[in-house]
Amino acid sequence: MLPLSVPPREIEATLWTTGQTRIAGVDEAGRGCLAGPVVAGAVVLPPGLRIEGVQDSKVLSPAQRERALRHILSEAVAVGIGLCTPEEIDQLNILHAAMEAMRRAVEALDSPVDAVLVDGNRLFPDPPAPAQAIVKGDRHVHAIAAASVVAKVTRDRMMLQLDSVEPAYGFAQHKGYPTKAHYAALHEHGPSAFHRRSFRLS
């Protein structure tokens, strides 16, 4: 069982003291975008490890996120990535697609976990271990912060690749988020194959 009464900042340490050392932190990126996939990361860190420079990806610059990712990949016990395509987002809706991407990220880890800690206020269905959703978990739980970096950098790199395929939309600049420039490109060119048709695109 997870210690539900423990403050979020202490939950990892509490789990470690009970022998639950393989704790997967999980977060996603791209939920609010108009184009591209929603991407999730899952990270298992060695007990007690704090990786310098790793925090909520939203407060880091692109260069800081890239450096943090290099440290995560070199020091993590396991890293998993999952995603749902724009087509899947349109089929499932964005909430369920984000949940599915997180499930896939945990499934992509190379061995079983003892616990799963997810950023947000709800869990994906049928987690493989005792799980807890933590509001603002990317600020409180180091493994979730690491997962947020993995998800954000992975997705940004994918959007750079899409920009080379569809340069008219400016994916390299806004990464698919709803900016004035993005809406202007949609008005001029219409949606691409990478846009989410279930979203309001005008």
Describe the model.
With 202 residues, the protein is an alpha/beta fold. It is built from eight helices and five strands, in the order αββαβααββαααα. A five-stranded mixed beta sheet has the order 3-2-1-4-5. β1 (23-29) and β2 form a beta hairpin. α2 (62-75) packs across α6 (142-165). It is elongated and about 60 Å long. The protein starts with 10 loop residues before the first helix and ends in a 13-residue tail after the last helix. The model has no long low-confidence stretch (mean pLDDT 95).
Give a concise summary.
By secondary structure, this protein is of the alpha/beta class. The protein has helices at residues 11-17, 62-75, 86-92, 94-107, 137-140, 142-165, 171-174, 180-189; strands at residues 23-29, 38-44, 78-84, 115-119, 131-134.
